[in-house]
Design a protein that fits this description.
By secondary structure, the chain is mainly alpha-helical. It has a single domain, classed as Ferritin, core subunit, four-helix bundle (Ferritin, Up-down Bundle), CATH 1.20.1260.10. Helix 1 runs antiparallel to helix 2, helix 1 packs parallel to helix 3 and helix 2 packs antiparallel against helix 5. The protein is elongated. It starts with a helix and ends with a helix. The relative contact order is 0.17. InterPro entries: CHP02284, DUF2383, Ferritin-like, Ferritin-like_SF, UCP029477.
Length: 151
């Protein structure tokens, strides 16, 4: 049996917060990075997270709900930690990439938990597509971090 609308809207609103966390996290990492290629990549990832949040907000509206518009408290704390750690490590590329990977780990966990629910098929297909994007981000950040670590 599919989740009721209220539960689906709540789940989607949590994922909107997750996407907003990613948007802000990637933007802040881009601001801290000196490498112009990484800066551009992270700026692009920030925009993709914003687009994902917007897509989820539209889905919540289509279900008759009021979409979330802000990031989560946990995301705000994580970004504060990233900023502090960046200052302490002199904004090292590896430290920034480590924290970005950690943020993507959290996002992946949220998407995987959401996809374990009995969702309407239209919601499931959007979440699966977005989860694949989060996985791609995670894998790319991890590869970049490993390269930074090896240098």
């Amino acid at each position: 049996m599919n989740m009721d609308n209220k539960d689906t809207i709540s789940l989607l609103n949590n994922l909107i917060e997750t996407s907003k966390d990613g948007q802000k996290g990637f933007r802040e990492c881009a601001d801290d990075l000196k490498n112009p290629e990484l800066k551009g990549l992270f700026t692009q990832r920030s925009a993709e997270c914003a687009a994902a949040a917007s897509e989820l907000q539209q889905l919540v509206r289509s279900l008759g709900g009021d979409p979330e518009t802000s990031s989560s408290a946990a995301g705000t704390l994580h970004r504060g930690w990233v900023n502090l750690k960046s200052v302490l490590t002199g904004h090292s590329e590896e430290a920034i990439l480590n924290e970005c990977e950690r943020g993507e780990d959290v996002a992946l966990k949220h998407y995987k938990e959401a996809l374990e629910k009995d969702l309407p098929s239209n919601v499931r297909s959007i979440l699966e597509k977005q989860r694949q994007g989060v996985q791609r981000n995670h894998d790319q950040v991890k590869a970049l971090r490993n390269m930074a670590r090896a240098s």
